[in-house]
Each structure stands twice: as structure tokens, then as C-alpha cells.
Design goal:
By secondary structure, the protein is an alpha+beta fold. The protein has 15 helices and 24 strands. Strands 1, 2, 3, 5, 13, 14 and 15 form a 7-stranded mixed beta sheet that branches.
């Protein structure tokens, strides 16, 4: 019974699952917290990984593992493998102006000086996404301008999951006893899903756009991770970390792509994830090129495209509601369900920490339609939940507008278990919604990828050969019937741009 491990190095924590490679049955698991903040020393990720591995009973018996991780984060390394500065995470918005500058600069490159719309479309055509502060390339521009001494030290740039895979293989800072193989920067590897979120990788062509990197950073002479195929192994885990020195390390994935393979998503499937960020994701054969910026056209980790509409304000909106009302999650749900749909005209536009989709990094949240009748705890609770879900519903509309098929909708993430979210979501989305069995979808997806890599390796399959994915099943606990209440979306649409 070969075992595989899946790692989810997310914004908030590191989670590890160990599963049977053939059946997907969970054998054991462990987790450890990451520090708060939008800029973090990656050493904390390594510490959390080792702690989570220990809590999972160790990884000495696994035959393969893969790492899923938060996308976009900038891990800048010097020639000795040291982290140049704290990694800027996806939710760090300090590079918002850099994104705008780069949009106009690419417009000028294409002969449309000053035309932002032309620049936005040029970025969407080149890499699938219009630039926002989340994307790595904007963080590199910020680094160039704000910290030129640090920028001059940069010899390689990795993403969070790339860096952790590299460390698991035994590489790392020169002289670090936990990195016996030292700073071999050319051994950093990644996959197409995470590379496609950098802003300098064209997943459609399967190549880095070093011209865009040079535009942003002023030079392109830095090491970028090798992009390997879905069933390839980038390295073996160091014997001090996992296995006996022969455990394969899979390509890994960005967190949303990891969740997609964990859920077994196929073209036509939509997943609505309510976690630290809110994500509406769709698998399709080809990526979009949405010049409006509403949809990011990334890659998944199986060879398909993965389109995302991402909001910064998701479960944190519910946390804010609980703080305002002094309620726990159960009480918040009870309050919300005691108010009518539409909250008697009370509408929250939930840009509590700016917003990514739509791109409004400096916006603030606004509560509209306040009246004596609706200034109750119940109305406020429902308005917060409705506002959060309306932002995600706008993302689904944007996918439809790009011609992305919508055949099956799944609701995932911690907030998906809220009775109020489950009752209100079908009213706002107007579609049947399936609720998968609760799980660590990113870690599970990484484990499934590791099993796929292991099976391909055992079969002696050459790179790119069609070895079937492991036949792991995803159980749906319930399907919620469609219950459209158009009033809620109409009220939200009337005020969402009044910021």
C-alpha cells in the first residue's frame, strides 16, 4: 500500500494529509499555523511544514508528495539562496500603482500610449490576466522602485510552493544545516498553474515572457523556476525530510488548481470557494483573455485552463459581522436567517480591505439603505452575508460573459458549512449548488497529484503521456435546489459602484 502526502502551504497555515495512493483513503494528517500579515519571512513556512509533518506522524513512509501553495507571492532569493526580504503575499496591495504603471507601459510598447484599455487587453492577451497588485510581476516592479538595493541582490524569484518544494528536496540557504544540498537555484521548479499567476508566464504557449519581466524589473537575468508537466517529478525529497531519499516530489500547484484536482473538477464545473479570499473558479479547455480584468485566465495542473474571479473579501466579511454583532458563527447564521431576503433594503458593499475583483485596492466597505426598520442585528447579519455572496455572483456572471460553460456548481471552504450561507447562496446564484464533503481540498489535490506522479513513474511513462489520474472519488453531502431571489442582486447592483 504505497502512501503519498499532500501539502497545503496556505496563507494561514500548513496542512499535510497522508493518503493511500490507490484509493485516496486518509491515513493521517497534521497542521501548523503561519503568522499573520501580508509580508512574511518564508522561514516560517518551513518551520510550519516541519511541525505539520511531525504532527502527521512523519513522512518517512511516503513514496511521493506534492505541495499546493498560495499563489502570486514573491520569494526573492540572492545568489546564496537567502531570502532577500520578507515575501510579499497575494493579498499585499502595496504594488497597486505598479500594476497601473505596467498596464500603461505595455500599452505604449504596443503603440497605444496613454490608452489603459489597450494596455489591459495587451496583458490579457499575453498572460491571460490584467495586472492587479496580487500578481508577482507587480511586486517585482515595486521592489525595483521602493527597495533598489534589495532588487540588485535578486538572483532568483520563486513562488511560495516552489520555494517549499525546493527546501523539501534539501536545497536552501548556504550554510543552513536544514539545507544540506545548498543554494542550487537552478533546481527550483514549479508547475504551469502557479507560473501562470506570475504575470510573466504564458501558459498557452508554455513559456516565460522574459520581455515582460524585463519591462517590470529592469532586467531578466534572474533564475526562474523550471516549469514541469503534470505527471513529472521535479526532484526527490531529501531523506532527512521524507521517504528514504527516493520519494518523488511532484510539480505542485497553486492553491486553486490544487483544490480543482482535489475536487475532480472537469470542464463545465464551477467551484465557489469562501476562504481567506473568495474564488469562483472554472475548468475549461482554453483560457480566457478578458481585458476587463474580471477574469484571470490561468492554467490548472492537469493540462486544462483554470479561470478565476477572485475577491479579497470573503470569510473575513463574516468575521467582521461577528465582531460587529458580538456573535459566534452559529449565532450569526441564526440572526441572518431570521431576517428577510434582501434585508429590507440594507446592502453591504463588502470592500473591507480594498478589492481585487473589481480592481479597487483603495476602496472601503459601505453599508447602504440604512433605515429604522432594518437597523437590527438580524438585518445586519444577513446584509453582510448577502453582500459577500453578491460579489462572488458577479464573478460567475463574468465567467459566463467570457463564454465559460457552467454545468455544475460546488460550494467549498469553511464558510460553506454555515447554514445561512447554504440557504442564501441558491437565492443569489439562482442555481442548484452541490456541497462536497468537508475536506482539505488543496492538500487532497496535492496528494492526488503525487499519486498521479507515482503511477506515471511506476509505469515508466515518458513526460506528457496520458497516464490516467487516480480514480479517487469526491462525495457530495447535499445538493441545494435553486431558489432565485432577483431582488438581492438588483439591490446590490444599484449601489456596488458608489465607492
Amino acid at each position: 500500500m504505497p502512501l503519498v502526502a499532500g501539502v497545503d502551504s496556505s496563507t494561514q497555515s500548513c496542512k499535510i494529509v497522508v493518503r493511500d495512493a490507490e484509493t485516496g483513503a486518509l491515513v493521517r494528517s497534521g497542521s501548523a499555523k503561519h503568522p499573520d500579515g501580508t509580508a512574511v519571512d518564508p522561514r516560517h513556512w518551513w518551520t510550519a511544514f516541519t511541525e505539520a509533518a511531525e504532527k502527521a506522524g512523519g513522512l518517512a513512509d511516503v513514496a511521493a508528495l506534492s505541495v499546493g501553495g498560495q499563489q502570486h507571492g514573491m520569494v526573492a532569493l540572492d545568489a546564496q539562496g537567502n531570502v532577500v526580504r520578507d515575501a510579499l503575499l497575494w493579498n499585499d496591495t502595496r504594488s497597486a500603482q505598479a500594476a497601473e504603471d505596467l498596464i500603461l507601459e505595455l500599452a505604449a510598447v504596443h503603440g497605444h500610449s496613454g490608452d489603459r484599455a489597450a494596455g489591459a487587453q495587451a496583458w490579457a492577451d499575453a498572460v491571460g490576466s490584467v495586472l492587479v497588485a496580487s500578481l508577482t510581476i507587480t511586486k517585482l516592479r515595486w521592489l525595483r522602485d521602493a527597495e533598489p538595493e534589495n532588487a540588485a541582490r535578486v538572483a532568483a524569484v520563486a513562488l511560495p510552493h516552489d520555494w517549499l518544494s525546493w527546501r523539501i528536496a534539501g536545497y536552501g540557504p548556504e550554510g543552513d544545516p536544514s539545507a544540506p544540498l545548498g543554494p542550487q537555484l537552478d533546481q527550483i521548479f514549479t508547475d504551469a498553474s502557479d507560473a501562470s499567476g506570475t504575470g510573466y508566464y504564458d501558459a498557452q504557449a508554455g513559456e516565460y515572457r522574459r520581455d515582460l519581466l524585463a519591462l517590470a524589473f529592469g532586467r531578466d537575468d534572474i533564475v526562474l523556476p523550471r516549469v514541469i508537466g503534470p505527471t513529472a517529478s521535479g526532484a526527490t525529497a531529501h531523506a532527512s525530510v521524507a521517504g528514504d531519499g527516493t520519494a518523488l516530489i511532484g510539480p505542485g500547484a497553486g492553491d486553486n488548481a490544487g483544490a480543482a484536482i482535489g475536487l475532480g473538477m472537469e470542464p463545465g464545473d464551477i467551484a465557489i470557494s469562501i476562504g481567506t479570499s473568495g474564488v469562483v473558479s472554472a475548468v475549461a479547455p482554453q483560457r480566457t483573455q478578458d481585458g476587463t480584468g474580471a477574469i484571470n485566465g490561468f492554467a490548472d495542473c492537469t493540462g486544462n485552463a483554470l479561470m478565476l474571479a477572485v475577491t479579497l473579501n470573503a470569510a473575513q466579511v463574516l468575521d467582521a459581522a461577528r465582531a460587529v454583532l458580538g456573535a459566534d458563527f452559529g449565532q450569526l447564521a441564526d440572526l441572518a436567517l431570521s431576517a428577510p431576503a434582501g434585508s429590507d433594503g440594507l446592502v453591504l458593499v463588502p470592500y473591507l480591505q480594498g478589492e481585487r475583483t473589481p480592481n479597487r485596492p483603495n476602496a472601503t466597505g459601505t453599508l447602504h439603505g440604512i433605515r429604522l426598520k432594518n437597523m437590527t442585528q438580524a438585518h445586519v447579519a444577513r446584509a453582510y452575508i448577502e453582500g459577500m455572496l453578491c460579489g462572488l455572483a458577479d464573478g460567475m456572471d463574468a465567467l459566463r460573459a467570457q463564454g465559460v460553460p457552467v454545468e455544475r456548481v460546488m460550494l467549498i471552504g469553511g464558510a460553506a458549512q454555515s447554514p445561512a450561507v447554504q440557504e442564501i447562496a441558491p437565492q443569489i446564484f439562482g442555481l442548484p449548488i452541490s456541497i462536497p464533503e468537508p475536506g482539505e481540498y488543496v492538500a487532497d489535490g496535492a496528494a492526488r497529484q503525487a499519486a498521479w506522479v507515482l503511477a506515471s513513474h511506476a509505469a515508466g511513462a515518458p513526460a506528457g503521456s496520458p497516464v490516467p489520474q487516480p480514480a479517487w472519488s469526491t462525495t457530495m453531502t447535499k445538493t441545494l435546489p435553486a431558489d432565485p431571489v432577483p431582488l438581492v442582486r438588483e439591490q446590490y447592483a444599484a449601489v456596488r459602484d458608489l465607492v
